Amino acid sequence: MPGVTALVLNRARTRMLAVRRADDGEWTPVTGIIDPGEEPARAAVREVAEEAMISCRVLRLLDVRTLPPITYPNGDRAQYLDLCFLCEADGGATPFPADGENTAARWFPIDAPPPMNERFTRQLSLALEDHAETRFRR
């Protein structure tokens, strides 16, 4: 299934947006599934608005990777192709966990992000590099 990760930074690039997932309590950038027929960059912007009540714009595609298969508690299985976008927040709004998928949403200093897994840590480091190229895992 196609999915997106939206790595949202403030305009000054001093803070990043993260949400605390309701299912496992982990801090992550905003993630979500692309709706049928939806443009991936629009999906990233939509997910950020739905999950954190933040308006943003996509700057570029950072990273493309296939995620490991996952089995949900109800037995459903899925595997995602993740398109990670670097996004910039439109303003200084206060994030809010708006859709029930997350228990918290907040800005973190870029030099003190929340604890995140290797995937999200790597994507954050890509966002902070001064390279325009998208990264592909080989």
UniProtKB/TrEMBL annotation:
Any Pfam family hit? NUDIX
GO MF term list: hydrolase activity
Residue ranges of every copy of the Nudix hydrolase domain listed in the record: 1-130
Q: Which SUPFAM superfamilies match?
A: Nudix
In its keyword annotation, does this UniProt entry include Magnesium? no
Cofactor (UniProt): Mg(2+)
Q: Which domain of life is it from?
A: Bacteria
Keywords (A to Z) from UniProt: Hydrolase
Quote the protein name from its UniProt record. Answer: ADP-ribose pyrophosphatase
